[in-house]
Amino acid sequence: MRKIMMFLMVMLLALPTVSFAHTHVQTTVPENGATVTSQLTEIKLSFETHIEKVSTLTVTKDGQELSIDSQEVSGHDLIGTFEEPLPNGEYEVKWNIVGEDGHVMEDAISFTVNADQEEVTSENKDTQKESATEEAEKSSSPDEQTEAESTSENSSFFVIMIVAVVIVATALIFVFRKKKG
User: Fold this and answer.
1) What is the tens place of the pLDDT at every residue in 70-100?
2) Tens-digit pLDDT profile for residues 120-133
3) Is the CB of residue 19 less than 8 Å from the CB of residue 180?
């Protein structure tokens, strides 16, 4: 009896477990509190775990919400893209994400854009070409999204199986205990 209990305890401790901690932001581009001195057409938030497709971000300048041309969730990243570079000023980025554990997380960062306007207009044409290339690359990666979703499903299945084994083992222990007693 003790051997069975010890075996079950060792198995539970030895097997990797999935952490159900809330998903927090890991990195942001631009960083919180940063002053951006070059043109900015993309905001990227990277999180600790996979985030769901329903996750969103909003960008405000002087209390006015700006229109984001495209928002994309890709694995751990939430990306907002603007066709035109952001004008100089102070910005706040708020996000509302659903993490891998199903919990909704909200937070915000702020940054300042202080770019040379001549640089912005001369580099704007180059950025549009780069954006078109990036969009083509992004649209060609549905396999990565499917892989991330299947990894999440596999993790959940693994946890459910471990819980089921523990329940069955506990039931067997009680059955054997009653037969001996």
Assistant:
1) 999 999 999 999 999 999 999 999 999 998 8
2) 454 555 555 455 44
3) no
pTM: 0.57
CB proximity list for 145: less than 8 A, separation 6 or greater: 74, 75
Our count of domains for the chain comes to 1
Under 8 Å between Cβ of 100 and 65: no
* Pairwise CA distance, residues 123 & 37, whole Å: 13
Q: Let me know the angle formed at the C-alpha of 47 by 41 and 50, rounded to the nearest 5 degrees.
A: 115
- Nearest C-alpha neighbor of 119 from the set 98, 142, 150, 88: 88
What domain range is 89 assigned to? 2-118+126-179
Other beta carbons within 10 angstroms of residue 69's beta carbon come to 12
SS3 21: coil
The residue whose two tokens read 């066709």 is: 83
Q: Say which residue the tokens 């202080």 belong to.
A: 114
Residue-by-residue DSSP string for 79-118: EEE-SSPPPSEEEEEEEEEEBTTS-EEEEEEEEEE---HH
| Buried-exposed string 98-123: b where 16+ CB fall within 10 A, e elsewhere | bbbeeeebeeebebebebeeeebeeb
The CATH code of the domain that includes 16 is 2.60.40.1220
Query: In the predicted model, what is the mean pLDDT of the chain?
Result: 79
